[in-house]
Write a structure and sequence with these properties.
The protein has a domain of 219 residues: 2-Layer Sandwich (Nucleotidyltransferase, domain 5), CATH 3.30.420.40. The protein has 15 helices and 24 strands. It is α/β, with parallel strands linked by helices and 463 residues long. The strands form 7 sheets. Strands 1, 2, 3, 5, 13, 14 and 15 form a 7-stranded mixed β-sheet that branches.
Length: 463
């Protein structure tokens, strides 16, 4: 019997990855990738060009495709279906003042949390629309529709029909769609842009929304964090810690979240549940910077860290090298605490860097699990480039009071999109079960003293 194939796309900030997998088993059949310019604003045509070039000959026997992409970016089109200006990406911070204005205009963070489950920050689409209205009124006047990056790419693959489509997960990061009611808050869109415009229809998670111009069925797609959760098969009780340049901590929940502190973004996931998430600005970059200070390779840095004792003989790093988002300290600086003549060694410094990075995310994950979720975590799932470090794996086991699972390196965003495509192809009630083989499990070796020292250093600096 001929097997059925599906494709998943991860159109991220810096690159595009495509996987083709067996729809039933999830077996990887082939893959490809391309590169995006390193920028905070970009012509969406460059995403499309790179995706088109990377998929030449790759999709010939694929039945369904799903596109995942970076969250939050603003793509605006005019009445002629043309892009009005370059897309502003999630990491473009020019709309920080707009976020503050919008929070105040609605009546404060509680109003926003109640309305859409999140308090807007510069990454959210709603703040970028306000920036556009304020700073480029001529362009704002041309806007007839707003999409997210994955919406726009999906729309292009389907030949730009009159309707464009999104999903709950990515819509929940706009700042004008509510995961609690599953409806747009068009009043918030109007508050930001000054007018109402066309928005994507929010599809069911397993819906076939159309076809590409060459006849491949299309699933809705989703945002990158939601796709990664789906690719991992994350379930209630899992805390996913993703260690890229920045870091994220999130869990799957059956209940919506509305955190007025702004620490937790109350997102939806790609299956009909919810994905409360906290983001830190400093993750792998902390390790990279530490290795550069010692003038050693990343492998040597890891070896040094593992020769030091837990707690680094009292050396504690607050890893806010680029400011911080969780906690909300945009102007913070990194700082080293507990320095003595005896503990200032390369090994202790290396360990303090890794412990500081992981303690920051452990604190964020504690906020998520303690915020009315009703479910205690049963494991941490560690993913991202820095998760491959043996030192990171071993030290993580000392900082989380549950087992740490490290799945094999994979393109989990693209895999999640492919799993969504398989779900849409099957028409079943639940996503297919794809086994992830080769995970490493680190059993609990919890060291409360390390977490306590980190909290004390933080209190000392920011009480």
């Amino acid at each position: 019997m001929t097997r059925k194939l599906v494709a998943g796309v991860d159109s991220s900030t810096q690159s595009v990855k495509i996987v083709v997998r067996d729809a039933e088993t999830g077996e990887l059949v082939r893959e490809a990738r391309g590169t995006h310019p390193d920028a905070t604003e970009i012509s969406p045509s460059k995403w499309l060009s790179e995706l088109t070039n990377s998929t030449k000959g790759l999709l010939d026997d694929v039945e369904v495709i799903s596109i995942g992409a970076q969250q939050h970016g603003m793509v605006v089109i005019d009445d002629n279906k043309q892009v009005v200006r370059d897309a502003l990406l999630w990491n473009d911070t020019r709309s920080a003042a707009a976020a503050t204005d919008l929070i105040n205009e609605l009546g404060g963070p509680n109003k926003w949390a109640d309305a859409v489950g999140s308090v807007p920050v510069a990454s959210f689409t709603v703040t970028k629309l306000r920036w556009l209205a304020t700073n480029e009124p001529a362009n704002a006047a041309k806007v007839s529709g707003v999409m997210l990056p994955h919406d726009w790419l999906t729309w292009q693959f389907m030949g730009t029909p009159d309707e464009f489509v999104t999903d709950r997960g990515d819509a929940s990061g706009t700042g004008y769609w509510s995961p609690q009611t599953n409806e747009y808050r068009k009043d918030l869109l109007k508050l930001a842009l000054g007018k109402e415009v066309q928005l994507p229809r929010v599809a069911q998670p397993n819906e076939i929304i159309g076809q590409t111009t060459n006849g491949i069925s299309v699933a809705p797609g989703t945002g990158d964090n939601m796709a990664a959760a789906l690719g991992l098969g994350a379930a209630t009780g899992d805390i996913v810690i993703s260690l890229g340049t920045s870091g994220t901590a999130y869990t799957v929940s059956s209940n919506p979240t509305n955190d007025a502190s702004g620490i937790i973004a109350g997102f939806a996931d790609a299956t009909g549940n919810y994905l409360p998430l906290a983001c830190t600005l400093n993750a792998a970059r902390v390790i990279n910077a530490g290795a550069a200070v010692l003038n050693v390779s990343l492998d040597q840095f890891a070896e040094l860290a593992l020769t030091a004792k837990p707690g680094a003989d009292g050396l504690v790093l607050l890893p806010f090298l680029d400011g911080e988002r969780t906690p909300n300290l945009p102007n913070a600086k990194g700082s080293m605490h507990g320095l003595t003549r005896n503990n200032l060694t390369p090994a202790n410094f290396a360990r303090a860097c890794i412990e500081g990075m992981l303690c920051s995310l452990a604190e964020a994950s504690d906020v998520i699990t303690n915020f009315g979720q009703g479910t205690k975590p049963n494991r941490v799932v560690l993913i991202g480039g820095a998760a491959a470090s043996k030192a990171v794996q071993e030290i993580a086991a000392t900082l989380f009071n549950v087992p740490v699972h490290i799945p094999p390196a994979a393109e989990y965003v693209a895999d999640g999109a492919a799993r969504q495509a398989s779900w849409a192809l099957s028409g079943s009630k639940n996503p297919p079960t794809w086994e992830i083989k080769g995970s490493v499990v680190k059993q609990v070796n919890y060291q409360e003293s390390v977490r306590k020292a980190y909290r004390e250093a933080f209190h000392e600096s920011y009480a």
